[in-house]
Amino acid sequence: MNSTDLSVLESAVTWLKAGHPVAIATVVQTWGSAPRPVGSWLAIRQDGQVAGSVSGGCVEDDLIRRAQSEILTRSTPEMVVYGVSQQEAARFGLPCGGTLRLLVEPKPELAILEKLLHEISSHQITRRTVNLSTGYSSLASGGRNDEFLFTEHEMQTTYGPRWRMIIIGAGQLSLYTADFALASDFEVIVIDPREEYAEGLHRQDIRFIQGMPDDVLLEIGVDPHTAVVALTHDPKLDDMALMEALKSSAFYVGALGSRNNTQKRKDRLLEFDLSKEQVERLHGPVGLYIGALTPPEIAVSILAEVIAVKYGISIPKKN
Q1: 225: domain CATH number?
Q2: Residue 124, Cβ density class (10 Å: 0-12 exposed, 13-18 middle, ≥19 buried)
Q3: 3-state class (DSSP) for residue 248
Q4: pLDDT tens digit string along 183-202?
Q5: What residue numbers bound the domain in which 301 lies?
Q6: Which of 100, 160, 172, 298 is most buried, most CB within 10 Å of its CB?
């Protein structure tokens, strides 16, 4: 669940607890170049305040008007469609004839949303099912590979950290990288055995594990939805973690270091029980080359490369 979607949930819970009528709109289907993906949602308060987006601003004004005048007076979910014709798509600013199909819930249940917020805050992947006939919803455990589901009877949406980034090292660059990863819908785990780095990581949004990185990786497990980024600049810590990460199914493994040091690291790794194919999975120097110099700039380059690999985008070869 990315930071925007989380803010929608937090706003909806706050508004409902304060006694405001609230409607929640979710994108359930798109055609053409719709600006927001399926599953995106928007909370609308009766006085017109909103949190989130379902179209990047194209249809929100009309949706607010409809919610205030019609939808909030009802008790069951309603389907709203924008952009059926080229003329309507143009009127609402939907690009290339895009079409949005939205499910709007006029009476979301506060208890369910509070529980959902609690479970997401506890790093649990949670699936919410909405009955289209009654408007009632329920929660169940979800999985990283769950897909959005919409039928004539129900809508199922999975929330929570579905992608994970494990960062080796707890220095300044690691914290910037963690912040960008959190904003990009990653659960973040930072591993560092060094006592002097533990003090600055008392944050609820980052899971910090103090231990040897290779041991911790084996303990917590690495799956195809996991990226591992080694940033300590200490071969004793980075290399041991990379040995385990490169043997795992992690979709991305990267390490900080110059081109020269990266080649030396690959040579060292080949001396252990790693194949050449496994070692060549290592992204190093970590991050896309954008001329980055400062820690936040380097963190941007790291996230850019991780996201590109996540979506199957070809990465330029690093000479």
Answers
A1: 3.40.50.720
A2: middle
A3: coil
A4: 888 889 999 998 887 766 77
A5: 163-310
A6: 100
